[in-house]
Amino acid sequence: MPAPSRRKRAIIIGAGPAGLTAAYELLTRSDVDVVVLEATDMVGGISRTVTHRGNRMDIGGHRFFSKSDRVMNWWLNMLPLERLDGRPRAISYQGRQRDLDEPTEAVDPRETDDVMLLRERRSRIYYMRRFFDYPVSLSVGTVRNLGLMRTIRIGFSYLKARLFPLRPEENLEQFFVNRFGRQLYETFFESYTEKVWGVSCREISAEWGAQRIKGLSILKAVLHPLKALVQRDGDISQKSTETSLINQFLYPKYGPGQMWEVCARKVTSLGGQVFMNMRADEVLTANGRVTGVNAHDTQTGEPMLLEGEYVFSSMPVSDLIAGIEDAPANVRDVSEKLVYRDFVTVGLLLEDLEVHEETTDGRTHIRDNWIYIQDEDVRLGRLQIFNNWSPYMVADPTTVWIGLEYFCDEGDDLWEKPDSEMADFGARELERIGLIDRSRVLDSVVIRMPKTYPAYFGSYERFGEIRDYTDGIEGLYLVGRNGMHRYNNQDHSMLTAMTAVDNIIAGRVDKDNVWSVNTEQDYHEERDGGEPGDR
Question: What digits encode the pLDDT tens for the residues 407-424?
Fold first, then answer.
């Protein structure tokens, strides 16, 4: 008798949001076997939670917010929402309210760990040693901080940009100027953006702005706080709100990595395999389709050969193409010239910050989740205050636990600084701009994350050559931020994986809908609340 046929297998490269979402979706919706290969010893990718002496760090800051019902439901299926004010819990989507599934016991973060918190969002810009609203609003405080004459120049510059926009709009500088005017661009956008990317905004494609800023404008930024005064609908999903303006988000009790640790456990309990410290080296193909993956254990060097009908790749595109033996020369050329921006976070534990808020109850810690550092005399890009993401991120709530975010290139002076020097460098910069007193630093840690931000310059304008090639390989799906070399948010990365699984189940071969995720302002959803379609 012939041997029974093996069930189809999906090999998933990377245990970040895209990879683990694909694994969970396949295991719960199909009969495909799943193997996940993760090159490091942690799940979550850049959405991991790093723990240092009981204090937890969110690498880059991850709001759990999406305009997609599908993603919001998926998150709350993994981690139920905390009970709000002791009332029965419900959530409203596009004006329609429905009850959430109640656990057998009340979900109280003081009593259980697997819980999603509802958090208030607050971000500000720190510029000229002063705080500004983020996004910038034409409030009395903004005018006072900028000065009347500069505010007037910003207003006239904005009118000029609206009347005489720059055409064609090809680079990021033109994108910003057309929407905010040159004066506001030079005041609040130019320096920070160039800190992030390390190049002039003229060298960055306007596509980055179209993807990240979407429909935000001065008019919307001005109207949003006014609307908030007269309209609060309790809609946690906040679908009609531009991403940069949302004022509530969900957040796991112990940071974003908790979501993916829970998901990885569920993947394993459903029969999937998750191999840690297992690096994919080569994607095998034959006759126009994938046949498997060669990998090796990064600790022992032991090789692993896996056969499979599907491969989901969330590894950097440059590494993927390098691992396909017969990739065409032009595709290799594009992939080798793709640019990535890297990331260093300095965690500082403090007795206190030097800035506070005065309230009716007295002086308190500032409530910001993160602060954009606009001043040009420091290299610091952004500051996170982990206490304000979740109070459970901090071992001792009487201390302040912060993350200093530096954008750099692997191998440059920031990347290569020894940990002690990098921590001291960060502390000195914060002290210089008046946010801390270095003598009150209690502890520090330095975390480096390579290939954090896929760049929209270098060979990016030729990326279509890579897409055409990989789309032609049956069973190969590029998903996630690095997998698609696209600055996706966490929910976008998840949706690419969900859509790829949809295609497998439906027998759909083309991958256009996977690439369409995060190309439309509302993720291709209809405003009548219909289920997400092609993405």
Answer: 999 999 999 999 999 999
